[in-house]
Fold this protein.
Amino acid sequence: EHPHFQLLSIDITDYTLLRSYFPEDTDVIVHLAAKAGVRPSIDQPLQYQKTNVLGTQHLLEIARDRHISQFVFGSSSSVYGVNDNVPWKESDPVLLPISPYASSKVAGELLGHVYTHLHDIRFIALRFFTVYGPRQRPDLAIHRFFRMIKQGQPIPVFGDGQTVRDYTFISDIVAGIQAAIHFTDTNFEIINLGNHRTVSLSRLIEEIEKVAGQKALIKRLPLQPGDVPKTYADISKARQLLGYDPKTDLLTGLQSFHQWYKSHSV
């Protein structure tokens, strides 16, 4: 209902339609439109390539055509692949992604560098680390685990539960995005947005059990192709350039999600 808000449902792979509807007076593009998820990308690689790579190029073309000088791109921690050199720094090589989703995000970052070099568009790529919180996608682990525990269904655990993730609460991610919108010091940056804390899958389930007040039934399954054993963000660059300071610990974040889930589940 805000007078400055407008929702347009547009396929970013349709350049003609996208260009015809795109607002003329745009100052910044924050590009979060993508096909997300590592595992589904293995079954649908062409769709991920089309949406995440071609769609990104379309938006960069809009920026070039409309002289929009600020472009913030939602990238992913998955670009690091299997990297034992933790915590992950933005200077680490990302030339060996292990899923179509990850490769599409690497391609988006590279396209951004091209448009910065050729067209003087400021491109800020934000590598998100396992974002969770209210309104999280229902196919992601935290949302699925709460739902399945509540329904008395066994939750799938791939491997021995020792994989670790850097879980980052949505409000911290949003604060990082807002800071990137106003960043003007340099023309091209890649910046991690994580929590700089790792949590094992087993511990995550234990914390969810505490918040849900129920024990989980566990279904052990083999490790999935495309999954990495760990993610862990070095956020020193985000602190320095964006003043980024994640404030939400895992238990607080899970409690916030649970409150939302209880009010929205059928």
In short: The chain is about 40% helix and 15% strand. The radius of gyration is 19 Å.
